[in-house]
Task: structure prediction
Amino acid sequence: MAAGAFRALLLLIWVLATAADRLWWTRHGGLPAWDQADYLNSALDHGRALGLLPGGGWQGWQALLDLSPKIPPLGSLINGAVIAVSGDAPAQAAWSLSFWNGLLLWATAGWALNLRSPQRLARPFALLAAAVVSLAPMLLELRTDYLLELPLTACVTLALWRLGCWLEPHRQSSWWQAFAAALAVSVALLVKQSALLVLIPAFGWVVVVSLRSGFRRRVQLLAGMTVVALSLLPWLRHNWITTLGGTNRAVLESAAREGDPGVLTLEGWLWYPRLLPDQVGWVLLLVGLSGLVLLLQQRRCGLVAPPRDGADRSQAWVWLVGMLVLGWLFTNLSPNKDSRYIAPLLPLLLLLLSRGWLQWGLWIRRRWPVQARWLPGLALTTGGLAAVALASIQQSARLQRRHQGPLEAIVRRAGGGVPGVEPSTLIVVPSTPDLNQHNVSYYGRRNGGQLVGRQLGGSRDHVQPVLDRAELVLLAEGDQGSVRKAARKLDRAVRESGVFKRVQVFPRPGGGSYSLWRRRADAVVSPGFEQRFPALASALEKGPSGLDPIFSSVAIEHMLDGHFLYRGPAREAALARLKADSEDRQARWTLALLAVLANRPMEASRQFAALEQVLPDNPWPSAFRAVVLLAGWDPGKAAAVAAAAGERIGDQSVLMGLDAAASVLSGAVWRIPEVIDIIPEATREIEQSLEPQENASS
Result:
């Protein structure tokens, strides 16, 4: 098959798959649920930050990195760019999934070409593999669901393919291959950090092979690792704390909440294998597996000659099978399990199954060499139709769960989705697939709008702040969704307090309704949070005992004010006070806390340094400064700050612990025993400082 014909047919496979996807989105696209709306919001944020979408503009690299505190930004950057071209309706935004599917088909076909088994059928085999990937039910489902698993699958496949090319023994460890592999690995990790579940074992394999190879490959490995590190460093340095916290919630806490099986249980080990028939399709799976058995049997009987470059090709297949097995082992070790988490390994499995399909075609062709040359194609067509039928059945089942509701009408009535309006926040008490804080935010900010949704009601402490400050509240009559019992108290308070007036009721397709409530014009509004903020910030002067009331109040305020509008006035007031008195402690604490909340550790360090001069006998400005320096990846300076404060103030276990820990992080590993000794004492000191506050609250 000529190269031009091969490329045209591969493009045709993508065009047909895209046409089918677009038809599905046109007919069946519904409202995005929680995760889908969250990813849509992230794409919208990044498109705005790049200046590609209305309602935003370029504000610098730090502002761009602020938008991806838990998940790397590359997927959202590309999705946001696609939205700028295709439009911001969810079905229009789904064109980005077609882009990722194209990348997946290209990487799969490229990997199949690299396997070259047999050589004369390399291109037909690559087309077969691409077709099988486009027909697999799980991947078809991901093409109609706005999640990050399809971009992740495409990029992991690309990374493993390029790593395999670089490792091939018949290649002369090309620098181009090394750079392409490093770039592909960087791209995968910048889409989603769960790529590590597959790339960690791949990295271990690469290291072992490189150490056994010559000097040239080792240098290339080191250079590739440098490329990956430099690619990840800006995002990871800016967001490493929130990334760790978000990963803990998404993996450990979510697994415990959902009751997923343990990683060492039989149910856990069988969790993903039992899903394969539905994810791959019974026809693709059974025919592919039986074809592999046929291939092995024919090889054993000498009916199939090994390829001319047999050793090299065997190595390529060993890499494929090894990555499939090791990737499954590492993915299974993740406590949080979901059917889509195994998706990055499906292209590898489908490459194997495609080889089984090809073997059946060769067997039939050998049996009927002239009369039925078309039988392999017929068999592939039949299997493909069966797979499509199975996928259609699954899609129909999902369609029953597609969400419809009055979300757009509610957002319009609340003033969202309209360019040029003032920023506003809608408090969303219910949480259902068809209406939640995430899809309210997305629809509220389409077309340059400035309405965001935030959820309150999870605690009784939310009731009074809503009555005091909220402007718009959305309630539900009927099913409240996944909310706590405390939400009912907030619901009753909004309805019965007389503070809010019901604006409009919106019927729900499945029964019940939503109701939009607005604060009455004559209702008293409490002073803005910017007026309370300086007093809260000054409580940091007392040390850890001041942290809980600060962050409890800030957490609620960030729900009431989804745009953080209080920060501007609070900062301006603090700067005005400093202009009048450069030693104004309250102003310094205000600016320091604002910098911490905005994830600006260096700015916070400058404010804490000024407070060290104003409060030379207070250990907490130095302690906080050391902490933010550690957050900003400057452990050497953090150790120096803590040590200098310890000499100035005297023995203080928190400062001693920070000095020792920061010194270890900066390379003084001989101080590890000191860290082990001092941490318990520092912990007791912090706990003692919290006891008066706990006693007062009880």
Summary: The mean pLDDT is 87. The first strand starts at residue 424 and ends at 428. The chain has three domains: 15-243+253-399, 407-519, 529-697.
